Every structure is written in structure tokens, then in C-alpha cells.
Amino acid sequence: MEQVRVAVHATDALSYAGLSSYLGSRPEVVLLRPAQHGEATVLVMSVERLTTDAAMLRRASTELGVPVVLVTSEINETELLTAVECGVVAILPRSAVTAERLAHSVLAAAKGQGVMPPNLVGELLKHIERLQRDVLAPNGLNASGLTPREIDVLRLMADGLDTNEIAGKLCYSERTVKNVIYGITNRLKLRNRSHAVAYALRSGII
Q: What is the DSSP secondary-structure string of 19-85?
């Protein structure tokens, strides 16, 4: 089992101690000392609110250049977009953090996946929809490199629909949907459907 090397940053000592304790008990995680943070593959960052700690998050993520798991008490739409810009791929409400959830988020981040509460995924999707409608589409632009059909399939996959349901929604055959999914994963070198959805969300495609 390949271990994930994790750096922990926190705005208070208690949060740092708690997160370190959770991660230190996991065999799949190597918890790094501050002097080793340059070797991290994932950064776990704990902040109270991004309104006051965004600069700290931006600085830490820029220095390390690795995916970020953010633990925070509260986050709104503006702060969510700031978090995404800073490389955040997973968000955990502070009140809901457990050793299992934290480890799951860290391992997902290390694999290039994302973990967010459903309401935050909804906010991201609405923002991307506005960006597409108000900025890209009027100018005939498509920043994703994907066809409209591929984007439609990804959106429905993100909503949890299976191949048959996607085919029904888009009036395609199941074979066509499977070919579209294969084309996406093969061209972008993605492992599976979940990886494709995570990539699309993280890249702002959907």
C-alpha cells in the first residue's frame, strides 16, 4: 500500500492537534513534520472562515502546489470559489470531521478526486452554469475541450444517473452513451466514471 504524505496547517493549536491525531492513526497516511512539508502530496488545512484566512490558504497551497483538503466551520459561495482557486478538492465541515471522513478525503485528493457536501457541489454547478451562459456561450467559447454532448453526459453522471437513465434523458442509445464516456476517459486519461466526474468538477467543466 502506497502511503500518502500529508502536511497539516491549522489556524489554532487545538485543531492542529486533533487533525494530526486523526491522521497519525491511519496506516495509509504519513504525517509530515513542519520541516518536511515540502514533501507533501496532500495538504490538510483547517481555518475558521475563509473571509479571514484566505491569504493563509492561498500562500500555503501556492508554496506546496498539492491538492488541499479544507476543514472549515462555514463557507459561502464566494469563499467556495476562492477555495477552488486555491486548489481545494475536498471540503469537510468542522462539526462533521471524523478520522474516517478525513482519511477518505485525503486519499481521494491524492487520487485526483474530489469530496464535497452536496450543497457545495450544487453551488459550484450553478456558478459554472452562469459562467457558461453569461461568458463563454455568448462568445462561442468552450474552455473544457469537450463537446456539448460529452458535457451533457458528464453533468448527468454527476447527478448520479446510470447509463440507461442518461440515454433516456438525452434521447441517445445506451451504446452511444457508453461510447461518449469511453471517449472522455480515454482522451483525458481518466480511470473510470467517478474520476471523470471529479476531473470535470475540479476543472470547472460542469
A: HHHHHHT-TTEEEPPGGGGGG-SEEEEEES-HHHHHHHHHHHHHHH-S-EEEEES---HHHHHHHHH
The identity of residue 142, as a single letter, is N
Which phi and psi angles does 171 have, rounded to 5°? 60, 40
Is the model's pLDDT at 143 over the cut of 80?
no
Each domain of the chain, given as residue ranges in start order, spans 4-116, 121-202
For residue range 47-98, list pLDDT tens digits in order.
888 777 778 888 887 888 899 999 998 888 778 888 888 888 999 988 888 9
Q: 121-202: what CATH class?
A: mainly alpha
Give domain 4-116's CATH number out of 3.50.50.60, 3.40.50.150, 3.30.300.350, 3.40.50.2300: 3.40.50.2300
Angstrom distance (rounded) from CA 89 to CA 67: 6
